[in-house]
Amino acid sequence: MNMCIVGTKVIVGMLIFIALTLSTALSDPIPDPVLYFNPVETDQVKEDTVWRNAGTAGGEVEKAGVTPVLEEGLIEIKQLRFKHEAKWYTPKRSFSVFTNGVRHAKTPVVNLEDFTMGLLMKINGAFFAQEHHLVALQAHPREQVQGIRIWLDTSGNGDFARIIIARHDLDLVDDWGTGIHKIQIGEKQWHWVHLVFESGDSMTFYVDGEKVAKNGAGAKWTKEHDMVLHGIFAHSFGEAIRTCNCSIAIYRVYDRALTQAEISQNVRGSYAVDSADKLTTTWGNVKR
Predict the structure, then answer these.
(1) Close Cβ partners of 48 (under 8 Å, ≥ 6 residues apart)
(2) What pLDDT does residue 21 have?
(3) CB 246 within 8 A of CB 234
């Protein structure tokens, strides 16, 4: 009888060890992002005039013009079985962006060589006034050192028009158009878009965790430059008229190139149950 009890305890102990190991392996293998804009994570309210950064760089990006509208509801991506209550920001007109014109005490500072950028977003229609900017991340002085800028197609048909990554001080520029990066997400549909940049080597493009294209990259970035100019819904403070007619629920930047497996986890893990709750459930199943 005692041997049975001992044997059962050993088996249960082994199962607990396996459950703990799996929970640890699956819960947080991805490093924390340096930039992490998510209205849920930072408890944004409609009166806020800044979008606070929950990433390791800290700080915040202030509004320019009219504050984008804070909305909430259900985000669904059917092919991923992704369905969550969330919050997001939506500009309703041009001059409605988050961007900083100059560096100041609360400006997030990031230093990037390889990087991964992820956006949970949707395109709402054609451009408002001029062009159709999505986001930009640049060093200072603007357009003279290194940066990335993203445009959407002005018709609002769901295409990303251009993605440019540059190292201007070395005259190195990569410019990927629609037929090259192959990012097409449709209109009024939520999707995850990821860009993975390996400095001087390649840029890989993902939609909903699936790779859609990979292209060579000549631009070489360095961590020596402080990336301090942020644009969300526009490329810069001075270009707020080119506000994107789109919505963003999550905008993340990691200071390394994530693998496809990590991107898949990133996509499916957003708004997931806390790992501690997962462990409690696992332990309950083991006991039963």
Answers:
(1) 67, 70
(2) 40
(3) no
CA–CA gap between residue 183 and residue 52 (Å, rounded): 28
HEC profile for 163-194? EEEEEHHHCEEEEEEHHHHCCECCECCCEEEE
> Tokens standing for 257?
């190139």
DSSP 11-51: HHHHHHHHHHHHHHHHHS-SPPPSEEE-TTTTT--TT-SEE
Measure the CA–CA gap between 288 and 283, rounded to whole angstroms.
9
Dump pLDDT digits (tens) for 8-43: 444 544 443 444 343 334 445 688 999 999 999 999
Residue-wise pLDDT for 101-137, tens only, equals 888 999 999 999 999 999 999 999 999 999 999 999 9
- Residue 264 pLDDT > 80: yes
Tokens for 274?
């806390």
Look at residues 176, 178, 177, 210 and name the one whose alpha carbon lies nearest to residue 193: 210
Task: Write down the pTM of the prediction.
Answer: 0.85
The pLDDT-based confidence of 178 (bands split at 50, 70, 90) is: confident
Compute CA distances 212 → 164, 165, 184, 208, 246, whole Å.
Answer: 17, 18, 10, 10, 21
Angle, CA of 263, 149 and 205, to the nearest 5°: 30
CA distance 147 to 7: 61
| Complete DSSP assignment for 127-150 | -SSSS-EEEEEEESSTTTSEEEEE
